[in-house]
Amino acid sequence: MSAYACFVQVIREEHKKKHPDEAVVFAEFSKKCAEKWKTMNSKEKKRFDDMSMRDKERYNREMRDYVPADGSRNAFKRKRTKDPNMPKRAWSAFFFFCEVERPKIRAKHPDWKVGDVAKELGKMWEAVSKKDVYERLAAKDKERYEQEMKMYKQGTFNQGTKRIKITPEMIESGNIPDSLLVDAAGTSGVDDIEDDIGDDEIDDDEDGNE
Hints:
This protein is mainly α. The protein is 57% helix and 3% strand. It has a two-stranded antiparallel sheet.
C-alpha cells in the first residue's frame, strides 16, 4: 500500500469508530481525504510513509515464500528483453539530481538500504533551489535520446557512448556541457543509478524518460 492508501485506510477506520452508524458516501469521502492529504506536511505524512514501508517489507517477505497454484515460482515474474545496442534512455531532472546527491548520502549513511536512500533523495528534491539546472540537463538528454532513436530506427545508430559524470560543480555553476555523452572508453562511471536500482525497478514513460 502507498502512503496515501495507508492514510485513507486510517481515516476510514477512525471515522467508523466515531460514527459507526453513519453511511459514508465514497466519492465525497475520497475528495475530503485528497484535500486533507494535500495540506499535510512531510512530518505529518511520516507516519503513513513508515506504514507504507512496513507494508512493502511485509509484501516482499511473503512473496519470497509464495508459490502460485501451478507450482511455478516464476509465474508472476516480468520478463523484459532489451536490445543492448539501443540508445540510452533519457534521464529525468530527478535522476540527474540523484546522480549528484546519492554519493553524499551514501558517504554519510553507509548502512542505509536502497529504499532509505531513495526516500531521503525524494525529500531533498522537494527543497532543491537549482531545479532549473537539472531540468536543462533533462531537456538536453531527451533531445539527444529522440535524435538517437531516429538513427536507431533507421539502422544508422552506433552504440558506444556513456554518460558523463554530472558533478556538484557543474550544478553550482550552471555550466552544462554541449554533450552529455562521451565515447565508452572515455569514462568508467555511466549509468550508476540504473546499476543501483536494477533494470526491473525502472519504468519508462512513452518518451523514453526514466
